[in-house]
Design a protein that fits this description.
There is one protein chain. Helix content is 0%, strand content 45%. It is mainly beta and 104 residues long. A hairpin with a 3-residue loop joins β4 and β5. The chain is globular, with a radius of gyration of 14 Å.
Length: 104
């Protein structure tokens, strides 16, 4: 489970594994997030996070305990994402403030 925790300058993404306690595996200092979605890319499990800001979108790849910002062909990073989800198999749908993107 991945959560958005905190507020303002103290906010972070936290990974929660099985069990009661929380052990922070990674933290990214991101401000003014407007939306966040999990996405499957070439995988059976959600392995990417789409993070929307007022004027851009960023994509993070999750692997083991590592998180890395990546790019995805055809994805609109120049505008705020309003919605993003897998629709069929590895295909995804992204709706931004300016356009509709569907992977092929």
């Amino acid at each position: 489970l991945i959560t958005c925790s905190g507020n303002g300058k103290d906010s972070s993404l936290r990974f929660i594994r099985t069990g009661i306690g929380i052990h922070e595996h990674a933290s990214i200092d991101l401000r003014n997030i407007k939306g966040i979605w999990a996405l499957k890319v070439d995988n059976h499990y959600d392995n990417h996070l789409i993070v929307a800001f007022f004027d851009q979108t960023r994509l993070f790849h999750l692997q083991n305990d590592e998180i890395e910002e990546v790019e995805l062909a055809g994805f609109d990073f120049q505008h705020q994402t309003l919605f993003c989800a897998n629709v069929v198999s590895d295909q995804y749908l992204q709706i931004t403030t300016q356009r509709f993107v569907r992977s092929s």
